[in-house]
């Protein structure tokens, strides 16, 4: 069981109530700013070409992270997700999904909009077989797949469960051929053809994947992929089983494979070296069509490409496309569901849903965020049903962020007065972080002193006296006996 189970950590972050909530509306978007800059680049703000009567020049792409026209193989804006929480995720050290939990996760993933849901092989256990049949009967929009060894016995059990497709896998690296199944490439090819033809005869999808692809001989890989492509496999799969590949290696292998097969290409990427998201993105750039993910990246060892992290990366490239495909506000619910099931916390730095994902602290950042959130955010929290915050009770705070809080509280202070009270916040925060209640109390006491004439800008001793008076008044009220009841 993980040490941070049930939210217990050695150091708790500040509560969201201790931060300034930044309004989601009313800010100029990055798109509109870029559009305006591109359209008005002439004398006195005339549109390009307007002064001489010529047609406007073509505008450059607004989003620098979007696919370029030269990326003719790229599928960054044309991909499908094979969600493997209920297969790869079951291999996570803490994972045990009973039938009820599996159904809840499957329904949540379907509501999010993933195209495929992959389940543990029904040959693994009798309960796995029953669960597979149960989920197939739910009538979900997502296609249901199961993952099996390249073996006829597994294939027969799988097709009888009612799945929409079967994912066939066998190790092809010298490590796995010698120390795992002990078969040579001739046997692997012969068995793959037999299993694929059998699954195809049942009218359902079939994918063939090598295991440990990046430590396999390239000639062996391309040979078996071409063979299964010729007999009509729906997809071939590349697996970075030990998480050893880097983005350039992934791009090179996928692009090479794209040149020799006509079927779709799926990638399954482990995260042992922290490369899974980057590798998945590069795979799509090189022509892959399907990416395996799991919620929070759970899986064998440190897991595979996390669903949320991949969505964040692809959203940055083409937000409108990603929003049109997936119900993004569902992401937090799905991650909380899985986190609870496997007894871990959602990491504080998790893309999109992490506790601090849309929290801003530095004063320079806060000023820009308040003017235009796109200055320091590539993701829009509102698209994920979330809210951004500016933390102000610390020594790094800036007066613009404090001014925003002053306005939210309905107080009237000049910029000089806001700067003066900000200096006091910093002074107090050098001793300890100030909660939002601490900051609000200071702002109200300061405002009251200004309004009554007891305080002016720069009068530190007068402010300290007012704060002491406020604290003593609170202590007196809290220590006074309650009125006796009649």
From TrEMBL:
Catalytic activity: acetyl-CoA + 2-oxoglutarate + H2O = (2R)-homocitrate + CoA + H(+)
BP-aspect Gene Ontology terms: lysine biosynthetic process via aminoadipic acid
Coiled-coil blocks: none
GO CC annotation: mitochondrion
MF terms (GO), sorted A to Z: homocitrate synthase activity; metal ion binding
Sequence segments annotated as region (Disordered): 41-61
Record's compositionally biased regions (Low complexity): 41-55
Keywords: Amino-acid biosynthesis, Lysine biosynthesis, Magnesium, Manganese, Metal-binding, Transferase
Residue ranges annotated for the Pyruvate carboxyltransferase domain, each copy included: 79-332
Recorded superkingdom: Eukaryota
InterPro entries, A to Z: 2-IPM_HCS-like, AIPM/Hcit_synth_CS, Aldolase_TIM, DRE_TIM_HCS_fun_bact, Homocitrate_synth, LeuA/HCS_post-cat, PYR_CT
Transport among keywords: no
Pathway(s) of this molecule: Amino-acid biosynthesis; L-lysine biosynthesis via AAA pathway; L-alpha-aminoadipate from 2-oxoglutarate: step 1/5
Family named by the database record: Belongs to the alpha-IPM synthase/homocitrate synthase family. Homocitrate synthase LYS20/LYS21 subfamily.
Name assigned to this protein: homocitrate synthase
Pfam families: HCS_D2 (PF22617), HMGL-like (PF00682)
Cofactor(s), by name: Mn(2+); Mg(2+)
EC identifiers of the protein: 2.3.3.14
């Amino acid at each position: 069981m993980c040490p941070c189970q049930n939210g217990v950590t050695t150091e708790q972050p500040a509560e969201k109530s201790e931060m300034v909530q930044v309004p989601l509306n009313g800010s100029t978007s990055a798109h509109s700013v870029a559009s305006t800059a591109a359209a008005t680049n002439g004398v006195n703000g005339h549109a390009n070409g307007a002064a001489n009567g010529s047609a406007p020049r073509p505008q450059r792409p607004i989003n620098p992270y979007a696919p370029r026209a030269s990326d003719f193989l790229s599928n960054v804006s044309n991909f499908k997700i094979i969600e493997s929480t209920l297969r790869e995720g079951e291999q996570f050290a803490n994972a045990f999904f009973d039938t009820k939990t599996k159904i809840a996760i499957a329904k949540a993933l379907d509501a999010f909009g993933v195209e495929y849901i992959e389940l543990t092989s029904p040959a693994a256990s009798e309960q796995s077989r029953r669960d597979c049949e149960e989920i197939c009967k739910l009538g979900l929009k997502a296609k249901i797949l199961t993952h099996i060894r390249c073996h006829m016995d597994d294939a027969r059990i799988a097709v009888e469960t009612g799945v929409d497709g079967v994912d066939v896998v066998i190790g092809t690296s010298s490590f796995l051929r010698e120390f795992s199944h002990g078969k040579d490439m001739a046997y692997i090819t012969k068995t793959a053809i037999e299993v694929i033809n059998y699954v195809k005869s049942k009218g359902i999808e079939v994918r063939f994947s090598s295991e440990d692809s990046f430590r396999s001989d390239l000639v062996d890989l391309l040979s078996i992929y071409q063979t299964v492509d010729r007999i009509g496999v729906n997809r071939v799969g590349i697996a970075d089983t030990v998480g050893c590949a880097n983005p350039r290696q992934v791009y090179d292998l996928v692009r090479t494979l794209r040149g020799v097969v006509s079927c779709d290409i799926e990638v399954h990427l482990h995260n042992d070296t922290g490369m899974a998201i980057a590798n998945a993105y590069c795979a799509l750039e090189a022509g892959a069509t399907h990416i395996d993910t799991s919620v929070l990246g759970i899986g064998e060892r440190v897991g595979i490409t996390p669903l949320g992290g991949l969505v964040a990366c692809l959203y940055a490239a083409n937000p409108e496309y990603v929003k049109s495909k997936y119900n993004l506000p569902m992401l937090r619910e799905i991650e909380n569901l899985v986190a609870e099931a496997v007894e871990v916390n959602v990491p504080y730095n998790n893309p999109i849903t992490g506790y601090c994902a849309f929290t801003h602290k530095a004063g320079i950042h806060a000023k820009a965020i308040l003017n235009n959130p796109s200055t320091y955010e590539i993701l829009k929290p509102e698209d994920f049903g979330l809210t951004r915050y500016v933390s102000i009770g610390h020594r790094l705070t800036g007066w613009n962020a404090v001014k925003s809080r002053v306005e939210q509280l309905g107080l009237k202070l000049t910029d000089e007065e806001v700067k003066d009270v900000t200096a006091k916040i910093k002074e107090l925060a050098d001793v300890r972080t100030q909660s939002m209640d601490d900051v609000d109390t200071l702002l109200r006491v300061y405002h009251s002193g200004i309004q009554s004439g007891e305080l002016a800008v720069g009068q530190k001793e007068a402010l300290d006296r007012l704060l002491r008076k406020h604290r003593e008044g609170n202590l007196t009220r809290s220590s006074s006996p309650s009125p006796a009841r009649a």
